[in-house]
Amino acid sequence: MVVDTETRMVIWNHQGRGKSVLDKFYHKLGKKNCEEIKAVASDGARGYLRSTREHTDALIVLDHFHVKMYLNNALDAVRKEELKKARKQDNAELEGILHCNQRFIMMRNKPSKKKETILETLSRINQRVYEAILLKDQFLEVYAASNKKTASSILRKWIISVARSGMKPFIDLADKFFRKRHYILNIFDHRISTAVSEGINNKIKRLRRMAYGYKDVHYFLLKIHQHCGLLNPKLST
Length: 237
What we know:
single chain, 237 residues, mainly alpha, 2 domains, two-stranded antiparallel sheet, two-stranded parallel sheet, 14 helices, 4 strands, 65% helix, globular
């Protein structure tokens, strides 16, 4: 699904995913039109990045919503590891704090009393998850930085902190962020994200549920253009 962030419309879609699929969009767009693309927001998939680099000179921005999702996944991996240990050790207090019904409070970006209470308890009974939450929150300072240079310095310090932590989920993530650091920091050059496409994805899911599914994929793609693209009859002509 390719979305124009200015018109907030689906401009192209195709069954499947990966580099070969996105290549079809750029080929159909043509070399001259590809040169007009200024910035592209992506979830960071290698195929999408390679395809965009090959066909355009656009600034690639690693979508910050996906970055936060990767951070939450790393935190959740640490939480699950410690929860297993707590259950084996019959540690009821720690098990209650790390239970899945508490995970959304831990992952919340904004501070809250509930999160502060969990942090305070974890600082006493489980340093590993406590540090994982702090690492996740520390990374968000990258986006709060006043400029790209400061953000780059914060990111570098975060990677060093992760290396010292010894937590594999975060070490793997830090390696990924180091390789894609330029894409992360590009948001300071062009404020673009995939937020529009995520909203459209929700509309598409609702469209599919209303129809109880589509047997003909091509017809489904056409219906997406009708509801979320330039074929929408509500648009003025």
